[in-house]
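From: lab user (bench 3)
To: helpdesk
Subject: output format question, protein + adenosine-5'-triphosphate

Hello, I'm new to running complex predictions and I'm not sure whether the block I got back is the full result or only part of it. Here's what I submitted:
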Amino acid sequence: MSFLGKKVGDNNNYSIIEENKKLKETLFSLKQELNSLKEPPLVVCDVLYVFDKKAIVRLANGGNFFVNISSNFIDKIKVGDRVLSEQKSLTIIDRLDKSKNFDVENFVIIEKPKITWAEIGGLKKQIREIYEVVELPLKNPKLFEEVGIEPPRGILLHGPSGTGKTILAKAVASSTNSTFIQIVGSELVQKFIGEGAKLVKDIFKLAREKAPSIIFIDEIDSIASERIDIGTSGEREVQRTFMQLLNEIDGFKPLDNVKIIGATNRIDILDKAILRPGRLDRLIHVPLPNEEGRKEIFKLHTKNMKLENVDFREVVAITDSFSGAEIKSVCTEAGYFAIRDKRVNVRKEDFVTAVSKVKQGDLEEGDVPVTMFG
Ligand code: ATP
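Helpdesk reply: Thanks, we reran it on our side. This is the complete output you should expect:
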């Protein structure tokens, strides 16, 4: 058996120092990524006038401001440039290359997924419904014309986190050989303030160009939630993005070969406008798996494991209210317990310990299996 390319138990070849170095490098790059995630978003502005060390910029909402230019960019900013400013002072701290930076393909995940329906455990009812309202119209639009009905332009998958909403959307993209364009609602409005509405427009344009395609909007509640007070500029920005989304959905025909799949864990806060007939009007609930579903998910995620005396009925019985994602973690953890014990066969007790570990939710910290190096 090997781990990271080394034979476990072969102490001569196994270099702890080398492994530690690799782990430190991984830790360093993860820390860098974490820091970049914590960075506050920047504001995108257009430069109207430049005066020595200052400039007048226009924000997407139309407001004009007289701002400083950071020392690195004095003499480098020109009228007509698109720049990035700090949120509070609006000091210009970077210039965008208009041709490159706002290429929509930099902001979305575009792929041709290879997930099949058979890789999804449980969720038979949901799969059938998605087949009828997304797959069938994409594959056989004539049938709908003949019968005289219009399929929904889009659907909304709602349910707890980790229950398989994303893999359902990917599976239908895969079975219809569609381009899968994934966007995360919160990123649309937070990454570059002022560009959300434009990005939505460009994403739909891209989807038409790459049709047949599926636009998957994860965390759709971040842009489509009910707002009582839209007084702040941030809220107005979200509202503009939302309006653009509604316009785009209304703008194409039900039998066009672009479909929209929204996903949310918070259907309770959604603005009803997005659910109106002709928009994302088919709601599909994706619940936590029942016993049968959990068993299927365990089987799927252990299909490449060597199991020793594992009766899934027992493991299923102690994973009530686990999501599919948590079951996947249990399987991975169980595998780690076997590795730590220098085994390749995974036993029932590995699963039982893994279940309590996932239940305690202590997977984030101390999760790197350091003990196996010692
Ligand atoms: P979130 O709401 O947090 O975005 P989600 O509902 O979209 O979560 P997924 O991203 O589809 O959940 O699931 C995460 C992972 O969990 C999947 O990649 C898959 O490995 C596993 N998983 C979840 N549900 C199932 C399932 N029903 N069958 C098989 N695997 C599953």
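A quick orientation on your result: The chain has four domains: 2-38, 43-100, 105-285, 291-360. Let us know if anything else is unclear.
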